[in-house]
Amino acid sequence: MPLAASDFRGRYGPWALVTGAAGGLGQAFARALGARGLNLVLSDLEAEPLEAVARAVEADHGVATRPLALDLTQPACAETAGALAAELELGLLVNNAGVSHIGRFADLPLDAHLQGLELHGRAAVTLTHILVQPMRRRGRGGVLFVSSGSAAVHSPWVAHYAATKAYQLALAEALYEELRHEGVDAMALVAGLTRTETLLRAGLDVGRAGVLLSEPRFVAERTLDALGSGPSFEPNLVDRLSTLVVGRWLPRRFALRLVRRSFERLFPRIAAQRDAGDP
Q1: What is the pLDDT at residue 246?
Q2: 219-255: pLDDT as tens digits
Q3: In degrees to the nearest 10, what's the CA dihedral of 217, 25, 214, 149?
Q4: Residues whose CB is less than 8 angstroms from the CB of residue 213 and which lie 6 or more positions away in sequence, other chains included
Q5: How far apart are CA 4 and CA 40, in angstroms?
Q6: Predicted confidence (pLDDT) per residue in 31-88, tens digit
Q7: Quick check: 121 and 167 in contact, CB under 8 A?
Q8: Would you say 90 and 107 are in contact if contact means Cβ atoms under 8 Å apart?
């Protein structure tokens, strides 16, 4: 049963930190949390779109916002998180900031892989470790990791992205069991295909995606409703069935081939990169 807005604010407020909040799922989470009455620290790289989101949330929901233009992969991330934790009662962390690069692992630049490793790994762990300490002392709060369906099926063509998201999924599920006895909810959002600018720029064929494609608002709302109910959550029923079949039931060799072909169908530019001799 989803919490009422006042109960949600009492459990996860009065402030939340959302990373990668300037667009896509991060913006959807910011708007959904504002509607639930939480004040927001919103983080992203670019100040202008971030401030536009902050102004819109304030105008629509009457909450306070603090836009924070910050590169989470830099050492200053820890210092900034510590200062925020000392100043504000941050009851919810949404580890949403991320990067995705689609293509053959060996063809993508090493810097792109390392950027994903820093952002999905080091930055998320840094923020979680610092902000969860006062949550434990208060006996309430929540930490949400925005993982991916690729974490469960280990998707070719996004091999390193899938690996870093699998790390987040494993961390979130283990923390769920560690922290729930102290009143803190940890959960991984296992997001499927979501209509974001990042995916559209990557060349997603929206028509072929069909029922696999979810809207950011739907994903954010369903996920916040489910927070505290378990270690991980897939908002799209089709994604849940796909993960069950491909991730658990099918033999791994067959499952990996099926996922590869699905990516090639959904992203036509990937199909163009296939080796002529690939089966």
Answers
A1: 81
A2: 999 999 999 999 999 998 888 888 888 888 889 899 9
A3: -140
A4: 193, 194, 195, 204, 206
A5: 18
A6: 999 999 999 999 999 999 999 999 999 999 999 999 999 999 998 999 999 999 999 9
A7: yes
A8: no
- The Cα 193–Cα 133 span in angstroms is 33
2 prior amide bond cis, ω within 30:
no
Q: Is the Cα torsion angle 185, 191, 196, 201 positive or negative in sign?
A: positive
Residues 6+ apart with CB under 8 A from 259: 153, 154, 155, 156, 246
- Known catalytic membership, residue 176: no
Q: Is 178 helix (H, G, I), strand (E, B) or coil?
A: helix
CA distance 162 to 74: 22
Among the listed residues 154, 153, 159, 219, the one whose alpha carbon sits nearest the alpha carbon of residue 189 = 219
